[in-house]
TrEMBL record:
<dbReference type="InterPro" id="IPR051217">
    <property type="entry name" value="Insect_Cuticle_Struc_Prot"/>
</dbReference>
<keyword id="KW-0193">Cuticle</keyword>
<dbReference type="GO" id="GO:0031012">
    <property type="term" value="C:extracellular matrix"/>
</dbReference>
<dbReference type="GO" id="GO:0005615">
    <property type="term" value="C:extracellular space"/>
</dbReference>
<dbReference type="GO" id="GO:0042302">
    <property type="term" value="F:structural constituent of cuticle"/>
</dbReference>
<protein>
    <submittedName>
        <fullName>Larval cuticle protein A2B-like</fullName>
    </submittedName>
</protein>
<dbReference type="Pfam" id="PF00379">
    <property type="entry name" value="Chitin_bind_4"/>
</dbReference>
<dbReference type="InterPro" id="IPR031311">
    <property type="entry name" value="CHIT_BIND_RR_consensus"/>
</dbReference>
<dbReference type="InterPro" id="IPR000618">
    <property type="entry name" value="Insect_cuticle"/>
</dbReference>
């Protein structure tokens, strides 16, 4: 596939002071600024049965416009699909959809934890066994 390339030429005329009486213009120097028209497209997908990771993405660029989408299977079993586009005029825009029911796992039952009542010993005869006196 051949791409059409656009070139923009800018002319720069340089005048140099030489040791003579006259000013002499040098040759015209052309600077070529290449303005490319980028184009690409790609896609990929992952379906890992061991980890349960499932996702895919595709994207197309034509000049300054990028369009694409990606999807991912969420931990609750639903699928999130994002369609997006981006350009210099509108910026980045995305539409997010969630497909399928959310299947949440039931919480595990909580067994009661047996405990004994806590008693505090305050010592005898006012010695305050529960409070340190600053010595060991």
């Amino acid at each position: 596939m051949f791409q059409q390339h656009r070139f923009q030429y800018k002319v720069l005329r340089i005048i140099v002071n030489v040791p003579r009486k006259n000013w002499y213009p040098l040759n015209f120097i052309f600077f070529c600024f290449f303005k490319a028209h980028p184009q690409y497209s790609y896609n990929y997908g992952v379906a890992d049965g061991l980890t349960g990771d499932q996702k895919s993405q595709s994207e197309i660029r034509d000049g300054g416009v990028v369009k694409g989408s990606y999807s991912v299977v969420e931990p609750d079993g639903s699928v999130r699909v994002v369609d997006y586009s981006a350009d210099d005029v509108n910026g980045f825009n995305a539409v997010v959809k969630k497909i399928g029911p959310s299947l949440h796992a039931a919480p595990a039952p909580v067994a009661p934890v047996p405990h004994t009542p806590v008693s505090y010993d305050y010592g005898y005869a006012g010695h305050g066994g529960a409070y340190p006196h600053g010595h060991y």
